[in-house]
C-alpha cells in the first residue's frame, strides 16, 4: 500500500502546467527543426522559423509559448493499492493544481474556461475546471498525463461513424483540408478508431500524449496494420500541400498517432483531433515519495537559427495608412507593422455589432476609421512587460461580423490567424480591405513587438476586452488582399500540384 498525499498531487499538477506552458517537448522541437531544414516553401519556412525562435525565447524567459494557454486535460491511472491522504476529490485536487498554475504571479497563464457554456459564458478566472479522466489499474502508483489544449486545435476535432467497408484513408484525406489552418500546423494528428463514439474521441485525444516517432517508424518499417496506416496517412496528408500555417509547403503533420479498440460489427467509429504548434503535454508518476520532479530540458535541444524578420519585409506605418496603400499589397507579402491598432475577439465583436444594430455610439476610443483590428486575447503581463504573450486567434470566428464591421465602422484591415471563409473574403473584396496573418504559436515573439497596451473598452470581458496596442515591426503576412485573393487557397494548391503523389480527393 502506497500513501499519496493530497498536496503532492496538487503541487505536481501546478508545477507540470507551468512547465509545459514554456517548454516544448524535445521530440517536437527535433521534428519541427528537421521539417524546417527540409522545407522548400519560403512562406512555410518563415512560419516554422518564427515558431522555433518563439519556442527558444519562451524556454529562456519562462513565458507561455502561446497566448491560448489551453484548457487542462488530465488522465489519471490510479493504482488499486494506493491510499489517499486527502480531503478533496480527485477532480478538486486537479482543479486546485490548475488554479495555482494559472495564477502563478511569476508566469501568469491566461484563463480561458467559461461557465456556463451557454448564456452568460463568464470566465471562471482561474481556468478551472479541468477535464479529468480516471482509470483504476493494478499497482501502487498514480500515473498522470496532463495536456493544455488550445481552442484553435480543439475546435478542429472531427468524428464520424463510417461503414465497415469504407476507406479510412479517403475519409481522412477529405476531412483534413476542411480543418483549415486554425489548428496551427505543423502539428500532430491523433486518431481513435473503433470502440464507440465517446471511446474513439477519447483515444484520439490520448494519442496526442505520445512522442513523435514517425521517422523511427519509417526507418524500421511497419510491423502491423496500424503502423502501416500511420505511414500511409503521414505521407498522404503531407502531400495535400497545406503546409505550415496553411501557407503551402512540404510539412503539414509531424506525425500521425493512432489508437484502436474493438467495435460493433456494424460500425467503424473514427475520430481525428489535431495538436497545434504549441503542443503541450507531460507525463509523471507519483509513488508516495513527494511531488513529481520535473527536470528542465537543455537549451541545446533548440536549433540556433539565423532568423531576421526584416529581410524581404516591407515596413508599414499604421498611423495614417490609406486604402490606396493597402491596395498595393499582394498575397504572401511580408510586412512589419508599426503604429497603433485596436484589439478585439468574439465577445468584443458581438458587443460592437449589437450596439450598431441598436443605433448606439461605440465606446469612447473605439474609432475604427481607416484602422486595423487585431484578433487577440493576450496573457496578462508580469514584471516589466507591457503585455504578455499575444499571438493571434482563429480569424474565421470573426467571419460572421466582417461585413458589418467593414461597412459600418470604417475598418480597413484585420490581423488574425489562419484563413478566412468565403463570406469574409467577399466582404474584404467588396470594401477594398485586407486581412493579414500573424503566426500562430509565436505569441511571445509577437509580444516583443508590442511597446504599449492601453485598455479601451469592455473591461469586464477580461482577455477579450478592447485594447490599443502600439507596435514596432510586428511581423505579418498578407493573407487576403484587397481584391479578395487568398494565400490560403493559392499556396496549398501550388504545393499539392508540386508534390503530386496523390490525386485530389473530392469532398
Using brief descriptors, characterize the structure shown.
single chain; 507 residues; alpha/beta; 60s Ribosomal Protein L30, Chain: A; fumarase; 5-stranded mixed beta barrel; 32% helix
Shape: globular
Rounded to an integer in angstroms, the radius of gyration calculated over CA atoms is 23 Å
- In total, the number of strands is 19
What's the story with the biggest beta sheet? 5 strands, mixed, barrel
- Please give the CATH class of the largest domain: Alpha Beta
Bin the strand percentage.
Answer: 15-25%
- CATH topology-level name of the largest domain: fumarase
Q: What is the CA-CA span between the terminal residues? A: 55 Å
Number of discrete domains = 3
Instruction: Give the overall pLDDT as a whole number.
Output: 95
Strand order of the largest sheet: 14-15-16-17-19
Please identify the structural class as seen in this structure.
Answer: alpha/beta
CATH superfamily of the largest domain: Fe-S hydro-lyase, tartrate dehydratase beta-type, catalytic domain
Q: What is the CATH-assigned architecture of the largest domain?
A: Alpha-Beta Barrel
How would you portray this structure in words?
The chain has 15 helices and 19 strands. It is α/β, with parallel strands linked by helices. The protein folds into 3 domains: 1-150 and 281-286, no CATH class; 151-275, 60s Ribosomal Protein L30, Chain: A; 314-491, Alpha-Beta Barrel (fumarase), CATH 3.20.130. β16 (413-416), α13 and β17 form a beta-alpha-beta unit.
SSE topology sketch:
Elements: E1 2-5, H1 6-22, H2 26-38, H3 42-61, E2 71-79, E3 82-85, H4 90-102, E4 114-115, E5 122-123, E6 131-137, E7 142-149, H5 151-154, E8 158-162, H6 168-175, E9 187-194, H7 197-207, H8 214-220, H9 225-238, E10 253-261, E11 268-275, E12 281-286, E13 314-317, H10 323-326, E14 334-343, H11 346-358, E15 372-374, H12 399-408, E16 413-416, H13 422-431, E17 434-437, H14 443-447, E18 450-457, E19 466-480, H15 487-499
Amino acid at each position: 500500500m502506497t500513501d499519496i498525499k493530497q498536496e503532492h498531487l496538487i503541487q505536481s499538477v501546478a508545477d507540470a502546467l507551468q512547465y509545459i506552458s514554456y517548454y516544448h517537448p524535445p521530440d517536437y522541437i527535433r521534428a519541427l527543426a528537421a521539417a524546417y531544414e527540409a522545407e522548400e516553401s519560403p512562406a512555410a519556412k518563415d512560419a516554422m522559423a518564427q515558431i522555433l525562435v518563439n519556442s527558444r525565447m519562451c524556454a529562456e524567459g519562462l513565458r507561455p509559448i502561446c497566448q491560448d494557454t489551453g484548457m487542462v486535460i488530465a488522465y489519471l491511472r490510479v493504482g488499486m493499492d494506493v491510499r489517499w491522504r486527502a480531503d478533496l476529490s480527485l477532480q478538486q485536487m486537479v482543479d486546485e493544481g490548475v488554479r495555482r498554475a494559472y495564477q502563478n504571479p511569476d508566469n501568469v497563464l491566461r484563463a480561458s474556461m467559461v461557465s456556463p457554456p451557454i448564456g452568460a459564458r463568464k470566465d471562471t478566472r482561474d481556468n478551472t475546471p479541468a477535464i479529468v479522466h480516471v482509470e483504476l489499474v493494478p499497482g501502487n502508483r498514480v500515473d498522470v498525463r496532463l495536456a493544455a489544449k488550445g481552442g484553435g486545435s480543439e475546435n478542429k476535432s472531427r468524428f464520424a461513424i463510417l461503414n465497415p467497408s469504407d476507406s479510412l484513408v479517403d475519409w481522412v484525406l477529405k476531412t483534413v483540408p476542411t480543418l483549415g489552418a486554425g489548428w496551427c500546423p505543423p502539428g500532430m494528428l491523433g486518431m481513435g478508431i473503433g470502440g464507440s463514439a465517446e471511446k474513439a474521441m477519447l483515444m484520439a485525444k490520448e494519442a496526442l500524449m505520445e512522442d513523435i516517432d514517425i521517422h523511427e517508424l519509417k526507418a524500421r518499417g511497419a510491423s502491423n496494420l496500424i503502423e502501416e496506416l500511420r505511414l500511409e496517412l503521414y505521407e498522404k496528408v503531407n502531400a495535400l500541400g497545406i503546409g505550415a500555417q496553411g501557407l503551402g509547403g512540404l510539412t503539414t503533420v509531424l506525425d500521425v498517432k493512432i489508437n484502436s479498440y474493438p467495435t460493433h460489427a456494424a460500425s467503424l467509429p473514427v475520430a481525428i483531433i489535431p495538436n497545434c504548434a504549441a503542443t503541450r503535454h507531460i507525463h509523471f508518476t507519483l509513488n508516495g515519495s513527494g511531488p513529481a520532479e520535473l527536470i528542465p530540458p537543455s537549451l541545446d535541444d533548440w536549433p540556433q537559427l539565423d532568423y531576421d524578420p526584416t529581410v524581404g519585409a516591407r515596413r508599414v506605418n499604421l498611423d495614417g495608412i490609406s486604402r490606396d496603400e493597402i491596395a498595393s499589397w499582394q498575397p504572401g507579402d511580408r510586412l512589419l507593422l508599426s503604429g497603433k491598432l485596436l484589439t478585439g475577439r468574439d465577445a468584443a465583436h458581438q458587443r460592437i455589432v449589437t450596439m450598431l444594430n441598436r443605433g448606439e455610439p461605440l465606446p469612447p476610443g473605439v474609432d475604427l476609421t481607416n484602422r486595423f483590428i487585431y484578433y487577440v486575447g493576450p496573457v496578462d503581463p508580469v514584471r516589466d512587460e507591457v503585455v504578455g504573450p499575444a499571438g493571434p486567434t482563429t480569424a474565421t470566428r470573426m467571419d460572421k461580423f466582417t461585413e458589418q464591421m467593414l461597412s459600418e465602422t470604417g475598418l480597413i484591415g484585420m490581423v488574425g490567424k489562419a484563413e478566412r471563409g468565403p463570406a469574409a473574403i467577399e466582404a474584404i473584396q467588396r470594401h477594398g480591405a485586407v486581412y493579414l496573418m500573424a503566426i500562430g504559436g509565436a505569441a511571445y515573439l509577437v509580444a516583443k513587438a508590442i511597446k504599449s497596451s492601453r485598455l479601451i473598452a469592455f473591461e469586464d470581458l477580461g482577455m477579450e476586452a478592447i485594447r490599443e496596442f502600439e507596435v514596432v515591426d510586428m511581423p505579418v503576412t498578407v493573407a487576403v488582399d484587397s481584391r479578395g485573393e487568398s494565400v490560403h487557397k493559392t499556396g496549398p494548391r501550388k504545393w499539392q500540384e508540386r508534390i503530386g503523389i496523390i490525386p485530389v480527393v473530392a469532398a
